[in-house]
Amino acid sequence: MEVKNFINGEYVDSHSQKTIDLYDPSTGKPYGTLPASDGIDVVQAYQSARKAFESWSKTKTAERVEIFHRIADLIEKNQDRLALAESKDVGKPLWLAKEVDIPRAAWNFRYFAGLIEHHLDQSAKVGQSLSYTLNQPMGVAGLISPWNLPLYLLTWKIAPALIMGNTAVCKPSEVTPVTAFLLGEILNEAGLPPGVCNIVQGNGADAGAAIVSHPGIPLISFTGGTATGERISSLAAPHFKKVSLELGGKNANIIFKDANIKKAVRGSVRASFLNSGQVCLCGSRVLVQEAVYDEFMEQFIAEVKNLKVGLPSDESVFMGPVVSQDQKEKVLAAITQAKKENGVILCGEENLDIPKENQDGYFIRPTVVADLTDCSDLWQREIFGPLVTVRSFKYAHEAVKLANTSPYGLSASIWTSDLSRAHKVAHEIEAGTVWVNQWLKRDLRMPFGGWKQSGIGRDGAEHSLSFYSEQKTVCINFG
Ligand code: NAD
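Above: the input record for the complex with nicotinamide-adenine-dinucleotide. Below: its predicted structure, written as tokens.
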């Protein structure tokens, strides 16, 4: 697999011809390369995007909508190929890529195609003065995405940016570049004019930072880790760029004594370990009310021990490997640290049943750690892998305090049958999304984003349209 940059509608190498190796997480072996792009490639992509902006920003909405539906159709037509590529690149089960990642990538285009047709500007009249708003495209958008949901999250940025009339320079994660590479073909086939969407592959410190600091790129949408978000903020600040940051999380998953325990167990297992725990919204801090702690934990641990870990292509597998050797080492180091901090490993050390040729793959069993203190680094720090920490609490206010004692504020889940408790706790939790008796359900019309160190800004429906445009008020005297 030889990944290329996609600039001005053409596949090209980086100007330096340097490449980065691409690894298959299920074998730990290289299976391709991607361009190690840098600032010069970014400038080339920018110039192509800037040129395309002149006509794309004036294209009729109906024409953009038509192209978007064709892109969505083609993603669906190529679903098997894209799902296979995503599964191989990330190590996620093929069924998950087929059920979630690829359909959602198609839906991102359809959703914003539909939304723009119903988008209304505001108007207000006072006396003989009529004011109305215009949401105008800003130019070239810089879109930087992570590796956990590669095509899903990249298209969640491309679609609103382009539908508003911007053009884009994108930088997918260097760990999982393949579906973004394949998207280029689809964009061409759908008739997206050359230069409207450019994809520069490579490292964050080179290609990513060059996008963020390019003076001609007025808006940056970034999804990734909090530490990277901090670097991006400081690079973008001197240019007064509009910046959206969707960052990390260490989300509380709270089980109250009046919860339906069976449902809470099933939901908590998914919230802990879907995509090998590599979803920013995973409930990696599990809090269980004392009265049901033993009952919940007995069922929870039994189910976690039952989860099948194996090859992403195996339809019966719940978890594949983690994405990279770095990620594997990070999770294993966290388990070692948990032991040093007198944490009790409740499961995770069972043998893995992996074929011989996959022994160097990045497989880790889902791991549950109990008895860490509140100030333990592991209780606070995002690990982003198949590792959750568990503890009990006595009173609801204690659970809220524990949930909020975190630098993050991305999401939380509450399991309870008491509606007034659900409302009260949801109100008190400091997070962008709070689920009650479910996890991961997303209504794209709703704002999505993080409190505290989990981000700045909101995505979703009008929030995205507003981010990817600049607003102007026109005020007319008609007297
Ligand atoms: P990361 O921050 O390492 O990388 C994300 C992207 O930023 C990659 O494309 C990377 O190349 C690029 N990058 C790195 N350094 C850069 C720099 N200096 N300038 C510009 N770009 C740079 O994150 P990751 O490891 O790919 O993803 C995991 C993280 O993403 C986790 O913290 C997870 O919680 C977070 N995440 C958040 C959300 C959300 O919606 N809040 C969604 C998914 C993932």
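Notes for the reader.
DSSP finds 15 helices and 22 strands in the chain.
The mean pLDDT is 97.
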